[in-house]
C-alpha cells in the first residue's frame, strides 16, 4: 500500500476512459493525450466493459462515468476495488453535490470530477490521483461528505451510537491528529506546517495510517473519518 503503485520512470501513465457518450470520451482523449506522460490505453461504453478492460489493460487511472447502461460506474468501481486492482478511479459527475459521487467514493474511487472540468484541472487531477495524493477539490469533497453524512444521520455514530472502529486503537496519538487533518482536506505541506513536522515525516505518517486502517488512499481516509464518526459534520454554511 505505497502512496504510489506506479513507477513513473517506467513509462507514461496509462488511462482508461469510461463513458457511454463517444463524443465525451473523444474530448477527454484529446485533452489527455496532448500532455506528455499520459496515454489513453482503452475506452469503454459501460461498467461491465470497464471492469474487463481494467483487468486486461492494467491502467493506472480509470475515468469513470456514473450513469451508464449494462452496469453503472458505482458497481464497476466497487468491482475494480474488490479485485485489489492498482488502478485508481476518478468518478465523473455532472454536479458537485451528487449522491452518486459519494457512492463512488464509498465504493473505492479516489476522487470525483465535474464533467465540465477545465482541461488543466483534468490533467492535474489525473497526475495527483496516480501519485496517491488523491485530494482533488478537497473542499468540494468535504462538502459532499458532510451533505451525505448529515442526511444519513451518521454523526450519531460519533456520539456513542456505535462503538468506534477497533482499528483506530492501532493509531498513535500523532497519527490520529494527522488523520483528522487529512479529513479536513489538508495537504501534506499544510499538515507539516500545522504540526511543525517535515513533509517527509507527514508522508510516512500518512502511509502508516493507510496501512493500519486498510485504506487505499487519502480520499478513502476522509470517507472513513466521516463514516466512523471520527469527524462530525459542521453546520451547513452553503
Overall description:
There is one protein chain. With 238 residues, the chain is α/β, with parallel strands linked by helices. The chain has two domains: 8-136, Rossmann fold, CATH 3.40.50.2300; 143-227, 3-Layer(aba) Sandwich (Rossmann fold). Helix content is 48%, strand content 12%. It has ten helices and five strands, in the order E-H-E-H-E-H-E-H-E-H-H-H-H-H-H. The protein has helices at 22-33, 47-57, 73-82, 99-107, 119-131, 138-152, 173-183, 188-195, 199-213, 218-227; strands at residues 13-18, 38-44, 61-65, 88-93, 111-114. Strands 2-1-3-4-5 form a five-stranded parallel beta sheet, with helices on both faces. Helix 3 links the parallel strand 3 (61-65) and strand 4 (88-93). The radius of gyration is 18 Å and the shape is globular. The model is unreliable at 1-9 and 153-162 (pLDDT under 50).
From the structure above, extract its key features.
238 residues, alpha/beta, Rossmann fold, 2 domains, 5-stranded parallel beta sheet, 10 helices, 5 strands, 48% helix, globular, disordered N terminus
Amino acid at each position: 500500500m505505497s502512496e504510489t503503485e506506479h513507477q513513473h520512470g517506467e513509462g507514461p501513465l496509462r488511462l482508461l476512459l469510461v463513458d457511454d457518450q463517444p463524443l465525451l470520451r473523444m474530448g477527454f482523449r484529446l485533452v489527455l493525450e496532448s500532455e506528455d506522460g499520459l496515454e489513453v490505453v482503452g475506452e469503454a461504453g459501460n461498467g461491465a466493459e470497464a471492469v474487463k478492460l481494467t483487468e486486461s489493460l492494467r491502467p493506472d487511472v480509470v475515468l469513470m462515468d456514473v450513469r451508464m447502461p449494462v452496469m453503472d460506474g458505482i458497481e464497476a468501481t466497487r468491482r475494480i476495488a474488490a479485485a485489489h486492482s492498482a488502478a485508481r478511479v476518478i468518478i465523473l459527475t455532472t454536479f458537485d453535490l451528487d449522491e452518486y459521487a459519494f457512492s463512488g467514493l464509498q465504493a473505492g474511487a479516489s476522487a470525483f470530477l465535474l464533467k465540465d472540468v477545465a482541461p488543466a484541472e483534468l490533467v492535474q487531477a489525473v497526475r495527483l490521483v496516480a501519485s496517491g495524493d488523491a485530494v482533488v477539490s478537497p473542499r468540494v469533497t468535504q462538502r459532499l461528505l458532510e451533505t451525505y453524512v448529515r442526511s444519513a444521520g451518521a454523526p450519531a455514530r460519533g456520539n456513542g451510537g456505535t462503538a468506534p472502529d477497533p482499528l483506530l486503537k492501532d493509531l498513535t496519538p500523532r497519527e490520529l491528529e494527522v488523520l483528522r487533518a487529512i479529513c479536513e482536506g489538508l495537504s501534506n505541506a499544510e499538515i507539516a506546517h500545522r504540526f511543525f513536522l517535515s513533509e517527509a515525516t507527514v508522508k510516512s505518517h500518512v502511509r502508516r495510517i493507510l496501512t493500519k486502517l486498510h485504506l487505499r488512499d487519502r480520499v478513502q481516509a476522509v470517507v472513513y473519518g466521516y463514516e466512523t464518526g471520527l469527524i462530525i459534520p459542521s453546520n451547513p454554511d452553503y
